[in-house]
Amino acid sequence: MKDFCMVLRGAFFLLMACLVLSGGGALAEDEGDAAASSVSLEAEEMVFDQQTGMYQAQGDVLLRRGEQTLVADRVQYNEETGDAQAFGRVRLFDPEAIVTGEKFRLNLNRDTGSIRNGRIFLPKPNFHVAGSEIEKLGKDQYHIQDGTFTTCDGERPSWKFTARQLDVTVGGYAWAKHVVFHIYDVPVIYLPVMGYPAKVERESGFLMPRFGRSDKRGTELSLVYYQILARNMDATFYLDYFSKLGVGKGIEYRYFLGHDNDGRAKVYHVSGLNGHSDQVAVDWKHMGTLPGEVWLTSKTQYVSSRRFFSDFGEAAGEYNRARAESVVAFSRHWGNNNLAGQFKYLRQLNQDDDELQVDDDLTLQHLPDVRFDMLRRRLGYTPLYFRLDSSASYLWQKEGEKVGRLNLRPALSTQFSPGGWLEAGAEIGYRQRFYTWAEGEEFKGIPDATLRLGTRLSRVYAVDGDRVSKIQHVLQPEVIYYYVPKVHQDDLPLLESADFIGRRNTVSYGLVNRLVAKLQSSTGQTDYHEFLYLRLAQEYDLSLTEHVDLLAPERPDAERWSDIRTELILRPTRYSYFDLDSRVATSGGKGLRTFFAEGGVEDGKGNALALRYRYRRDEQEYIGANLDLAWLKPVYLNYEQRYSLDASNTLENVLNLEYRAQCWSMYVSWRDRGDEQEFTVNFALTGIGKTSHFGSRLDPTF
Description:
mainly beta; 26-stranded antiparallel barrel; twelve-stranded antiparallel beta sheet; 2 helices; elongated; disordered N terminus
C-alpha cells in the first residue's frame, strides 16, 4: 500500500508541474529551479488561446520532469482554472513505477484528479494495481472503483484481490468494500469489508494463516497480525487454535533504541483444554552498549512447565529441554583489561503435576559471577610478562549452601627462541581462593607451572596446475608440561568442579599438519585456501594423580597414557567438507571411546547433502542426514533424519517442501519424532508475507 500511494502522488504531481507553457513547444524554467525540477513539453502541435487561457498540445506529446516522463496523444491545460487533461494511451514512466490509462484529469489548484481505466506497475516489488476509476479526492486521499491488486504477472494472474470500492488515506487507513480473493479467475474468499493501515513508511496488517495437524496438539490454525508502533518498534500478535490443548494468545514486541541497542520480548499463554492446565511462556532478549561503553546482553526465559517445550518445540534441543535458563551479562574492555559479569538463574522444570517432581531447591545458582582479567603485558624491558585472572562468585541454593568465592591467579611468563627455530615458553602462576559461608571463612593457595616447547616447519611445492600453482605444507610439533602440587582441600566447600583443583604432573604432545593451496584465478587474482588441518594429541601422566574434572574417572595404573585425540578438517573444494573428531584409548584394549564425523557437498545453487555420525561408548550412537534439492524447480525439498543405531529406532524425520511460483509459494512440512507426528501447510503471497511459525515457539537462540 505504501508504494501504491507514493506512485499515485508522483503521477498527479508530474502533471501539476505544467504551470506555465510557452510557445515553441517548451516549458519555461525559473533560473533558481534545480535541474531535477525542470519541466519540458514536446509535441507535434502546440496552441495557446489567450482568451480562454487554454494550452493545447497534440501529437506524440512528451512531458518530462526530472526522471519522470509522461507520454500521451493529447494534453490540455487551462491556466485560469488549473484544469489539466491527458488523452489517449497515456503512460507515465518513473524509475519506480509505470502508470497507464485512457485519460488523466486533474485540477492543479484543488489538488484533485482522476485516471480512467488506470493501471499501476511497480517493478521492484512487482505490484500490479488497476481500477476503472482512480480518483484523487484531496491531499493524501484516494478512491478506487472496481479495483484489483496482485503481485503476479500476466493477464490471468495466479491470485488477485478485487474490491468494488477502495478508499485510501495515506498515513491513515485503507477501507475496501466487497473484497474477493481469487485464485486465477475463481473467487475463493469473500469479505464484505476489510480495513488495514496505509502507512507510508511500513505496512501493518494480517499475515497469511498457517495450518497444521499434530498428534500432541491436534488440529492447528494460526492467525497473525503485524502492527507498526513507531519507526523503531513493532509488534506481532498471535492467535493460535490447538484442538487438543486449547487457544494460544501471544504478543512479540521488537524494538531498536539506536546505535546497536535492540531486542525482542514475547509473552504467550495457552488456555488449558481436555484436562491440561494453562501454560505460560515469557522470554526477552536484548543486546547493546550502555553509557560508559558497557556491553549488555540479556537472555531471560520463563515457562510454566517442561510440557511447554515438549508440546511446542520444533527441533532437537527444543522439545527435549528440561530447564529454563536466564542470563543477564555485561562486559567492559579498556586497554589490556577486561571486566565481565553475569547473573545466571536455572529453573528445573516439572513435566506434569502427576509425574515425578524435580527438586529445584538444590539447583546451584550463580548470582552473580564477576570476572576481571588483565591481559598479558610486558614488565618494562625484561623478558617477563605479567597477567592476572580473577573471578568472584556468589553460589546460591534455595534450600542449601550460600557461598561467596573469590579466585585470584597472577602469573609470570616468558618466551624465547633458542637457535632461532625452537619456540619455548614458560609460565608460573599462583591460584588463591577465598571462601565465606555459614561455617566461617577459608582460603587456600595452590601454585602451578607450565613449560611449552614447539617449532614450525614448512615447505612449498610447485604444482603449476590450472587453478593451483603452489601447495605449502606446515608441520607444527609441540610438547607441554603441566605441574600442580597436591594440596589438602577438605576444609573448603565443594559445590562444583571448580572448587577442587587436583594434583597434576603431565606431559602432553601435539602434532599439527596444514596444507595450504595458492590459487590463481583467470583474472590474475591470488587467493589462499587451507584444504587440510590434522592434529594429533595425547597426554602422559607422570604420577597418576587427580585431575581438575571430578566427574572424570581416574585412570588405573596401567593407563598412564590418555586417549589419542584426532582432529581433521578437510576442505577439498569450497563446496565440500569433511570434519572428524575422535578419541581412542591406547591402554586396556578398550579402543574407540568417542567418534564424530560429518561431511557434505553443495553446488552453490541450492543443492546440498550432509551426512554425520556420532558415537560415544556406552552412551550414544546415531547417524544423521540432511538433503536440500533445488533440481526440481519450482519445487524445493529439504529432508532431515536422525537414526539411533544403539536403540535401532528413528529419532526424527523432517520433510519440508516448497512450491515457489512467480508470485506465491506453498510450504508443506512433515515431522516425525516417534511419539508424535506433525503436519503443517503455509502459504505466502508475494507482497503479503507469511506466518513462519506458531506464536508458541520461543526464540531458538536461547
